Amino acid sequence: MVKKLVLAIDRDDDLGRKTGIPSPVIGREANIQAAIKLAIADPEDSDVNTMFGAVKIYDELKEKGEDVEVVTVCGDENVGVISDSKIAEQLDMLARKFGATSAIVVTDGSEDEFVLPIISSRFKIDAVSRIIVKQSKTIESTYFLIKRMLNDPKIARMTLTPLGILFLIYSIFLLARYPEWGTGAIIFAIGFYFLIKAYGLEDVVEDYFSTLKKALLEGRMSFIAYVISAILIVIGTIQGLNMVWRVYNQPIAPGVITLITSFIYGSIWWVVAGGIAATFGKIFDLILEKKPFIKQLAIPFLLISTGLVLWGASVFILSGSGIGVEQDSALQYLLFSIFGAVLITLMAIIPLTKRA
């Protein structure tokens, strides 16, 4: 039984992937040997310094006579829910094994610190030590940084992918001789990327492309459905931007709400169609695999209901700015769309409740 743990955190499990050493790694000698193996496997990995930093703190506390143990805890290559769940399981095991009440957390100052709330829910955190490696001017050169970005899949996905998309967007509009549209599309893409990051939807996007790749390799019907879905969503985005452009060029300058509403009005049914196409592809795969698919049948109805409400609301809001139909007619459209959405939703949900 010890009172305090020195925890070296490796959220993406570089130690396990590169050396095959399972975690948690408990004890001074075990951590030193594991760090040496990781250094041999990848001398540039910052987790090597994290582990040695944890051992150094452990030695300092031991010299002061404190009751302490050093442990390296690793997550998973799939950073997020999976990796954090594995770390939580190991922390629970350590709490039972040692009965420790406090911890000193050692990280390399990157994404590892995202697990601090998980640790603090199990141990009182006395300190957080961030290990920053001193680098020479040669390592700090632009060439090295670019080379490292290209070689590191995590960094490449976070930096090069958005840059590549922005360059492609601008080049397409430049070839079409609409450079001003390209600027607007780039701003839209950056805003969309920020929203994805803000709401933690990276895993959703990554899962979509992983599913698309898996469907292609396994020859599933859903591959075609996902491709059609993506094309429809892209068309919807273009139609929405086209509607925004038309509204923006009105004699009276529109407000931000009007521009957002015009985008919804121009794109909503294309997006709904894309969602329905993807759903039917999934249903077809489930039928071929002889798996339950009844619950999936409700999704197209719910998408149509959502589309109706958003379309009716956009028509009503735009009518207030003098765009589209008269406001009285727009109010009727809104009421009918809400009624239709409720009716369609009930049609989707009631059969499921009866089966339950």
Automatic annotation (TrEMBL):
Signal peptide: none annotated. InterPro entries: DUF373. The chain crosses the membrane at residues 155-175, 181-200, 221-240, 252-276, 297-318, 330-352. Keywords: Membrane, Transmembrane, Transmembrane helix. Pfam families: DUF373 (PF04123). It comes from the Archaea. This is DUF373 family protein. It comes from Archaeoglobus veneficus (strain DSM 11195 / SNP6).
